[in-house]
Amino acid sequence: MKLYAYCLAADLDTLGDSPPGISGAPVRLLKIDDLAVLVSHAEIDAVPVTRNNALAHAAVVRSVLDQTTPLPFRFGSLVTEQQLRSYISNRKPALEKKLAHVRGCVEMSVKIIWQLPEDGNNQLQEIPVAEPQGAGATFLADKRRQLLGDERRAAQAAEIAAWLSETVSDLTRDEQVTVRSSERLVLSAAHLVERAQLRHYREKIGEARENRPELHFLTSGPWPPYSFANIELEFKTQFGVS
Asked: What's the pTM value of the predicted model, to 2 decimals?
């Protein structure tokens, strides 16, 4: 029989009132080498990617967030108990290191939306280009404007990323940042924040929002540290779970 694995945790000996898992299956706590894994029995070979299943996975992981900081497994992780025990036994030092890294923390999400120059806001300075002569010269001039515009947007996006990182650097243990200078959603950041610093972190983000009114902030959390678990690829490689 296969198990569906939700998350891995330390310092967790009992499971409270856990919400139902995938397909409504009851969730139990499996202890392996002093570590705890939240699992449920699964009679299927693959987990359908549905909204209900995704919400069930997230709810189970979040249910222990008040007790400990779990390392979430990738959605759809189906294994046998023996495979799970072998994986944890072989990777225990690395897993303990990851658990120590996230211990006492939660993940906070910040997304920043900007208006691209084409939208009429945050306009780039006009790039002087000599009056073109002929179709070829016009094409080259247009390409030059495009390249210089791309470079300017990339520099602006990098400035936003550096500014946000510096704003919260003393309140975060780690961060994962994605910058896309050519898109309206210019930045997506995940911050690993110590629980004791959560109020100060939110205050800093509020100040940042006021200081940069030309940017639109989308914030959420606290969440389990999905962006900092980094065990799903190892899990997939170890067992070939698709």
From this structure: 0.80
